[in-house]
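pasting for ref
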Amino acid sequence: MNQPRIRCVGGIAMDPDGRLLLVKRANEPGAGRWSLPGGRVEAEETDSDALVREMREETALEVVPGELVGVVERGPFEIYDYRCTAVAGALTAGDDASDARWVSGAEFAAMERAGELVPLLGETLRGWGALPT
C-alpha cells in the first residue's frame, strides 16, 4: 500500500559571506542533527507562504522565497527546497529547532564528516550546486 505523500518545503538561505543557514532538529525525523529549515505545507498555503512561515517559526528570520532548487523524498515526506533570502530578523532557534546558525563550507564539511547532518543532506546539496562557500 502506498503511503500518502506529505508536502513540505525547505529553505536554502545563504548570507552575504556564502554561509548556509542550518537548524538543529529538536524532533524526529532527524532529531539532534542539522538540516535545512522547513516543514509541512498546510492545506490552505502555497509553497511560498509555507516557506515564509516555517523560516520565521524555526529561525525568527523573514525571508523572500526564490527559485525551486530541487525536490527530495524522505519516507512519506516530499520536500520542495527553495532558495530564499533573509531580509529581516535576528537569527534565533525556535519551534522544532534546538539551535540555528550560519555555516561556512569548511564547517559544513566537518559536520558532514562527523555525521552531524541529516542523512543525504550533503550529497543532495552537492548535487544541486548549493553548498556553502
